Amino acid sequence: MPLRNINDLDRLKKINAALVSRVERSMDQQGNAFSLFQTAISLESRVRTRTEELHSTLRRLEQSNIDLSAAKENAEQANLSKTRFLAAASHDVLQPLNAAHLSVSALAEVQTSEEGKKLVRQVERSLETMEDLLRTLLDISKLDAGVVQPDIGDVSLEALFSSLRSDFQPVAELKALSLKFRPVNAVVRSDRTLLRRILQNILSNALGYTRSGGVLVGTRHRGDTIRIDVADTGCGIPEDQREAVFEEFHRGTLPATAELDGGGLGLGLAIVRRMAGALGHPVTFSSRVGRGTIFHIDVPVGLGAPADAIASAASMERPRGYGLFGTKVLLVENDAEVLEAMTFLLERWQCLVRAATSTADALDMLGDTDWLPDIVIADQHLDGGDLGTTTISEVRDYLGRAVPALIVTADSSEAVAKAARAGGIELMRKPVKPAQLRALLAHLLA
């Protein structure tokens, strides 16, 4: 209908309002679309920005991981280098320390006055403390660097206890303490060397912190494990020090007799925890102040036959006699100071000594058919790159018999121990304790 035909004013207003409303709705729709368009652009920009930030963060994280990996590798290399350095340094230090041990022991035998004997004993104690510290630092370094690989096998507890009894009985007697090992018909799965060191350190602590009474070592079967107990009647460990005793250089309150054994360095139980961790042998203890302490080591039951192991242990028991008079000793050692000190000590024991510094020298000594050695004592690392185990093998081949032999070395590596075992050769670590050397020589010659 044409507008000129519309005369109704109200009707015109309604049409106008409808048109205005339609236009406004159209404008609102366009405005909303524009707003959405702007929002979409803004979101896209923000997403792009956040994506770039995320990529940047990932790149930084990747670089940080690379840096951390490099730092970890450097730290591991530094740790291994430290271990190798300590091993080399300890070997070099142990050589003159061994010569000092031997010389002091020889000096002790010619002392007649009480004052002279007292001074010699003081020097011996200082040397023993130095030796213990060096060996312990080396052990801690190796364990922390993760280079100790346990050699797990069947270990006869009777043989192990017999060896420990031989080592610690003189210490107990010196302090007027009892030291008892309960007989045990058992074999466990462990590394014999590491397990022995664990028990050595616990026994040393037990005797060092005990004023009266003594120490008892026994075992208990607990299913698939055997629990080794080391009980003492010492001063005990206070409740607030139960965890601290396993920390380096922690020392408890020493009893009045501690001066007899130097009082300890506070490293024994730190070594125990590390070695036990490497073996997977839980170590716990119970203690009462003033009453004593019992340490427990849980070790898996072995697979071997205990009876055979015990028979072997009995056959290895060292005799008390030290008859070395007239024993012919072929001594192979390339360190001049050690050679001189060892020769002097053996001659004080009435041995007949011929010295060499290499395999060739040792074989030259055998040219005199009127002088055939009863025993060979050799260092492992000799002149010209010769090895003591090889020297002993060649000497035996030359003589046509398995002459008793002993490797005395400052090299604490498992490779040397395995080579000695493979050749049927006894092994003793430097610095040598003369009393132990004398007992071992008597045993080998028996």
From TrEMBL:
Presence of keyword rRNA processing: no
Record field: catalytic activity: ATP + protein L-histidine = ADP + protein N-phospho-L-histidine
Broad enzyme group: transferase
Coiled-coil annotated residue ranges, if any: none
Keywords annotated in UniProt: Kinase, Phosphoprotein, Transferase
Domain called Histidine kinase: residue spans: 88-303
EC number(s) reported in the record: 2.7.13.3
Pfam families cross-referenced by the UniProt entry: HATPase_c, HisKA, Response_reg
GO molecular function term, any single one: phosphorelay sensor kinase activity
Entry's Gene Ontology cellular component terms: plasma membrane
Annotated positions of the 4-aspartylphosphate modification: D379
Membrane-spanning ranges: none
Matching NCBIfam families: near_NosP_CTERM
PANTHER family in the cross-refs: HISTIDINE KINASE, TWO-COMPONENT HISTIDINE PROTEIN KINASE
Protein's name according to its UniProt entry: histidine kinase
Organism of origin: Mesorhizobium australicum (strain HAMBI 3006 / LMG 24608 / WSM2073)
